[in-house]
Write a structure and sequence with these properties.
Number of strands: 2
Largest sheet: 2 strands, antiparallel
Strand order of the largest sheet: 1-2
Strand content: under 5%
Structural class: mainly alpha
Number of helices: 6
Helix content: over 70%
């Protein structure tokens, strides 16, 4: 079942703010929250993530029904990629080195910003690339 295309972009906007605050404050706790949000989105799909719930219950009723839909698999894969970067960032911020935590968090922030501001999902594009390479016609 396809999902409202505005949902993942809203989640990316919230993620952008959260990761920017992490970089400004160095808060490992806030990055742990974002890592959990990515994990829930990767495990259950973006609609089951905290930001998906927020979009579904608070935002979507105020902006009306969707007009554009997308397959759930690419955004779910993007959540997995985000989880990987946030996990590395969390390790760097808690165990060191700090530069690793900041670099991984910055990379996740850049990807989230691209999606939020321009609708360009790097993780989704990576998903499509992996599918093209993995599924070769005979």
């Amino acid at each position: 079942m396809d999902i409202d295309a505005r949902g993942p972009r809203f989640g990316a906007a919230v993620t952008t703010v959260v990761l920017a605050v992490v970089l400004i404050t160095g808060s490992a706790w806030l990055l742990a929250w974002q890592t959990l949000a990515f994990a829930l989105g990767a495990a259950g799909g973006v609609a089951r993530s905290p930001y998906g719930w927020l979009f579904r219950t608070v935002v979507r009723p105020r902006i009306g029904p969707p007009t554009e839909f997308e397959a759930p698999e690419p955004p779910r894969f993007a959540q997995t990629v985000g989880l990987l970067f946030a996990g590395v960032g969390l390790v760097g911020l808690t165990l060191g080195p700090d530069w690793l935590g900041l670099a991984a968090t910055g990379a996740a922030l850049a990807a989230a910003f691209l999606n939020a501001a321009f609708g360009y999902c790097l993780g989704c594009e990576l998903y499509l690339l992996v599918r093209r390479v993995a599924v070769r016609p005979e």
